[in-house]
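User: Quick one: structure for sequence A, then sequence B.

Assistant: Sequence A:
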Amino acid sequence: MMLNTLSPRLVFCGLVLLAIAAMLFARVYLQGYLGLEACPLCMTQRVFVVLWGMIALVAALHNPRSLGRRVYGALCALAATMGAAVAGRHVWLQHLPEDQVPACGPSLEYMLENFPFAEALRLVMMGDGNCADTVWTLFGLSIPEQTLLVFCVVIAISLWQALREDPREH
């Protein structure tokens, strides 16, 4: 199979480029061009995009053999899984009936400045009315649905990277 001949470094570089593309899309297009402000759940998802990208960057620079490749792949998958959980929560909020949507809360900046970190994190993960709004779609998918899809792709690639045989070891 041709995919198995891809070098681990090239696969990790691809994961880095995917993270960069996702962040550029969010910051430059959605926020900069369309003027959409990121809600607390969106900001949290961005943290996990950056995390998987940083892990993949370190892995690409390190270019480890079997055990290291497996560890980096698992760490990328873990970061993407945590991001997928947040995106899944966000999608769930967007599909709640209007009368069940939580009330709007304070901004992420306000929560981080005025609440203990654990309390701010709990409030962010609950989401609020701002997170339930679908403000833009592409191919019928909201931003969190698109992000969940990207996280699922990253999980699949990362697990494949962690579990496959290294072509350099044959």
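Sequence B:
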Amino acid sequence: MPRSVTKKRRVLTAVAGAALLASSAAIPASAADGTVGGAGPIKEYAPFPTPVSYPCEVIVDDNGKLWTDQFIGNRYGRVDPETGQVSETPLPNLAGLPGGQNKGPDGSIWFVEATGNALGRLNPETLHIDTYPFPWGNIGPINLPATPTINTGLGVPFDNSFGKDGKLYFALIGLNIFGSYDPATGQWERYDIPTPLSGPIAMEKGPANTIAFTEAIGNKIALFDIYTHEFTEYTIPTPGAFPGGLTVSPDDKYLYFGETLTNKIGRIEYATGKIEEFDLLALRKGLPSNLLTGNPLPNPGQMRFGSDGKLYIMQGTFTLGNQVGQFDPKTLEYNELRTPTPYSSPCDLNNTVPGKIFFAEFTGNRIAYFDIPVTEDISNTFPVFG
């Protein structure tokens, strides 16, 4: 064979090898074993018996059991992390559709019913569920022969959060109002959200004495002061962001939020109102690790700080993603963990157990978790009652 041809083949082989190495280097080496930035790999519990139940948020009860609202399944799912046993409890309201949840002062689980136009309370010990219909926008209850009472209405709540005053706060998308319920007195209160058709979706404890919530349609982040009852709204600089998740920083200085449709996360400095945005696509290192297993776009949603001081972000909740983002606010380093289940749609997460992040998978139909280091006190970011 002519020496020139042999040399040409060697050159081509070397170029091809270099290209292969470059492409593999585009994905972090640790992605192969499912760990990034000291976190992972993601491990999953068995799926829930009810197919397509759409579990979302996770609460760790006082006995260490994991609970999640099964939105479409109209049930409450439980996982025993010690044994892996999975079980379900149906809602008494056939039209309930449980949404956002929080643990109350007595250890019970309070949740909203998106189509049930009500609050619900689950006793983790007895599995008994009480229903508290909203005094506004209700077109129920409906009584049908041989069936439980069906309560429904036009409120459409998606999330809730306890305030430092012990009241449970929520927003009603259908009525564009912000409301509260006092479990101690049974008193309801309502407040009109300043922006019409604001589309309030996610809600969390905010900085100082506030409850923070996202206005997905209004493209704003809002704070409600539980004592003065005043609203403060911040317009997101990027139009059409559709904010879908938020959390306060451990030092109570910032409020972080996800811009679902523009693949960014933002933060508001509480003292000054200054807003910064971080483009996740620009921060990503090379190619996403979930090619062919999920939507590769971040589409950030709900988020929580981990005990390692990093911000963990649910990605592709409504767009068939299967990654959890990891953002370091100090270095701006951004990594991604991949769920074993393809197209799992990770929904919401719990950070209250040091060294763990628990979350549920909307379309994966299960609860998952991963381990993280314990280096920082993040207790300020926990819900009021854990």
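Residues 1-30 have pLDDT under 50 and may be disordered. The longest strand covers residues 55-60.

User: Thanks, that's what I needed.
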